[in-house]
Amino acid sequence: MEMIRHIILLIPFSIGRKEMKVCIVYDTKRGSTGIIASWMGEAIKDVCDVRVMHIGEVNTLKDCDLIVIGSPIYYERPLKSVLEFLEQHQDELRNKKVAVFVVCIAEIFGHAGKAYAEKRYVGALIKRVPGKVIETAVIKGWIRKPNFSQKVVVQNWIKELLKNLEIKS
């Protein structure tokens, strides 16, 4: 039996001559959004300068080229702390490349659940970002144990986001 191996070549991503700095910023209530943010950072750490930070650790976003912001969904809305963070950092987010993601269980309701999550949950984040949000994601969360099948989904999403930025540059 012949074994086939897949090799993924990751080339450092740069804008002009400098390496891209990606800041993944999140808040979490029970840890799932933090785990997902760390999976994202792990996926791109070899191709860019990446920092994964809880919103409470953020001093400034001025040196970030791409800012990815994530929130879990509780009681039908993103965490208030994430919404306030977006309001407080309006000036720093202006003219930046911004992507947002939410972590929820809406996908268990199929396509309609995901569409609802994109409109209501992601929409609540987008409204608070000055300028254009370049990418969004609704990520399937979990209640008790981490859903490790989402690791590949999350890592592919962030890699594709960087790939699309490289193509547009």
Automatic annotation (TrEMBL):
GO molecular function: FMN binding; menaquinone-dependent protoporphyrinogen oxidase activity
Organism: Thermococcus barophilus (strain DSM 11836 / MP)
Residue spans crossing the bilayer: none
GO terms (BP aspect): heme biosynthetic process
Protein name: Flavodoxin-like domain-containing protein
Domain (Flavodoxin-like): residue spans on this chain: 22-162
Pfam family for this entry, one: Flavodoxin_5
